[in-house]
Amino acid sequence: MSFHLPPTDSIENSNGVSIADSIALDSSAAFQLLVCASSQDVREAAAEALWPRQYADQNELECSHERFADLPFDTRVLALICASVIARQPSSTHKLRAVPLYEFLAPPRSSVHSAERPVFRIQSGRAARTLTMPGGSPQTLARNAAFVLPGCADDTVIQRCSWGRVECEPYSDTYQWCLDDSSVYLNLSNRARTRARWGSQAPVIISASGEQLHELSSPLQRIFQGERISLGTSMLMRLAAGGLSGAVIAFDNQLPIVRGRRPRDATLSIEIGPDLESPLVGRCFKGDLSPRYDLNCIGLGGRVRVSLREGRTIAELDLIARKVGVWHGTRIRGSFQYHPQCAQVVAEVA
Fold first, then answer.
1. How far is CA 336 from the centre of its chain?
2. What is the full DSSP assignment across 103-165?
3. CB atoms within 10 A of CB 138
4. Do the beta carbons of residue 60 and residue 131 sit within 8 Å?
5. Burial of residue 347, with CB atoms counted within 10 A of its CB: 0-12 exposed, 13-18 middle, 19 or more buried
6. Structure pTM?
7. What is the pLDDT of residues 127-185, one digit of tens each?
């Protein structure tokens, strides 16, 4: 039996999306859009970007509420991705929102519960089997899994934790470049700088397109050491010219022990504006923000292009990034307020 998503009238692949009208995202970010974007056309854009790939066969999926083939396109793609990850990682079914089989076999009988999320099932009655994928790699598929779809931003990451007052004290939502006649520094607190130096990953600058800007590591290191940087440096010239608009300064750091419990790593993202006068947007997160659904195991790693949908895609990304962060390159991005393609869309609409 083939291992694919058969084409239907409502499904179109994303090969025709132009570079100018789309944004390149890590597949995990596109998956977050597919799960929790409030706009259906943005969810459909994410679904188109993530299809076609190596999925479980839709003929082997059932829905407790209605025929699987009658579900919206974006819901079908999301269910197929989740089913594929569960089939590839049967030992992680609890983490992946698997539910007891009886929840599928006995769906809510009262209209009072009609708003509950549907339950999906990978058809039972078959033993685990191994298929050879188009690329030649074997895939072992498990059976008898029932599951619900992720429904919010928190469901897309391993764990987001709440903050305590003492833990959050060194951080703020906005930062500012402080400029005098000859130099510039960033108004980070001393405690934030100290935690950055003790973090598991040093602060780096990630461009708006997701690449690490290694050439700026030296001035960035001096900033986090509390030093000023000269107005003549390449970093300051790029800042003043708007060349770093939408880039983020990102780092992980170790939180202090609270009430004797083991501290968790925190992640801080500071988005750079179009000039030195623009406030930087800071977002801090606590917990394990790794993607809950490992798309690499089903051949969905790497980057995809998602249609901008007249700017709605970036607006949805900004909301998700502020809640749980979005993986953009090798680090977490906490906002898309200054992303260059956001300004591009605004200019086109105007």
1. 12
2. HHHS---SGGGTTSPPEEEE--S---EEEE-TTS-EEEE----EEE---SGGGGEEEE-PPPH
3. 8
4. no
5. exposed
6. 0.85
7. 555 655 545 666 555 556 889 999 999 999 998 988 877 777 778 788 999 988 888 99
